[in-house]
Amino acid sequence: MRIQTRIDDLSSREVQALVAEHLAGMHGNSPPGHVNALALEALRRPDVTFWSAWRGTDLCGCGALKELDASSGEIKSMRTRAGFLRQGVAQAVLDEIIRTARERGYSRLCLETGTGAAFTAAHALYLRNGFEWGNQFGTYEATDFNRFMTRAL
Question: What domains does the chain contain, in order, with CATH numbers?
Fold first, then answer.
């Protein structure tokens, strides 16, 4: 069965639980003070579009696009539920984010990520999709833990 993505208002308990799972994972795999994941209310801001990913009636992942300025966006809150890893969920969400960014006329996408084993699959996904290692952007501070990626559109 195909993965379907849809813009989500984050009102369901199931989606809220997935966001909580994402935040817990980021806190569990990042040094104190180095988590840049967005909490529920920040994901509801007008400059953020949030997608949930579904296989039938099963919630399997999520992702978001935050507008940085009129020509660029930032990928946020990419998460695949454990039971759906390596089944194309993250790719489906990323495809939707890239499609939307192009539709909006963005010339680039950026993201901030961590280092270590917990982030290896994410790095591979982004590199496979044309992202390159880059410099810090926006208000992020570069540290020994975080890394930055960008992709021209």
Answer: 4-152 (3.40.630.30)
For residue 131, the SS3 value is coil
Residue whose C-alpha is closest to residue 2's, from 96, 125, 131:
96
| End-to-end Cα spacing for the chain | 29
Output the six-digit token pair for 99.
């499609």
Please state, in angstroms and rounded to a whole number, the distance separating the CA atoms of residues 65 and 51.
9
Find out whether 20 and 35 touch, Cβ atoms under 8 Å: no
Q: Please check the confidence at residue 31 and state whether its pLDDT lies above 80.
A: no
**Chain segment 102-115, per-residue pLDDT in tens:** 999 999 999 999 99
Look up the pTM and report it: 0.94
Backbone angles phi, psi at 76, to 5 degrees: -135, 160
C-alpha–C-alpha distance, residues 16 and 24, integer Å = 12
Compute CA distances 73 → 54, 97, 124, 148, 153, whole Å.
Answer: 24, 9, 20, 13, 11
